[in-house]
Amino acid sequence: MDIIAKTVYEGGLEAGNLKIGIVCARFNELLTKNLLHGAMDSFVRHGGKASNITVAWVPGAYEIPLLASQFAKSGKYDALIGLGLVIEGKTSHADHINSTVAHSLSALSVKHEIPIIFAVVAAENLEQAMERCGTKLGNRGSDAAASAIEMANLMKKLKK
Ligand code: INI
Fold it and tell me: Residue with the nearest Cα to atom 17 of ligand 1?
């Protein structure tokens, strides 16, 4: 027998009048600009307005949390997205950046009660990176915009 919950919360995928802030890392710009394009294109194709998108470029993924914090504090946005691409090198530098950014964004999201979508692509090499930035495996920026919309709508429902 199926068990049916009394109350189920879900966020829809209609962007409507949602306002989003996107922080995009310039490091590996050749591919991060595809993530940004994917995110904006997806937001608009979900019914969002381009004029409701604010973008901030930062030097690298490591700088994403600081801008995300500013955006979150401003109270102007329904959701935020952090876009970046970290490609592993010969040292563990990339791993450090990735986990630091992931932890920081999740802490900011909970602190400010705003969805912050973590879309820093981690790749072992350029081929893997390209696959996730608009080729074989899709575009993580597009996925991030859909998640931002869903979470923003879910938060709005819960606040009602
Ligand atoms: N930043 C990235 O966004 N991706 C990388 O792959 C990367 N690597 O490999 O070094 C990277 N480094 C720069 C870092 O994010 C900061 O901008 C820099 O350390 C200054 O704080």
Answer: 60
pLDDT at residue number 94? 85
Q: What is the pTM of this model?
A: 0.96
pLDDT, residue 159, reads 86
* Predicted pLDDT of residue 147: 98
CA of 27 to the centre of ligand 1 (A): 6
Contact 31, 85 (CB under 8 A): yes
The arithmetic mean of pLDDT across residues 94-101, rounded, is 92
Atom 18 (ligand 1) nearest CA: 60
Q: How many whole angstroms separate alpha carbon 129 and alpha carbon 138?
A: 11
Q: Are 120 and 144 in contact (CB under 8 A)?
A: no
The beta strands (E) that lie in the chain are given as: 20-25, 53-58, 79-87, 116-123, 133-135, 138-139
What is the whole-number distance in angstroms between the Cα of residue 11 and the centre of ligand 1?
33
Residues with CB under 6 Å of ligand 1 are 25, 27-28, 59-63, 84-87, 89, 93-94, 97
Q: Which of 138, 153, 159 is nearest to 42 (CA)?
A: 138
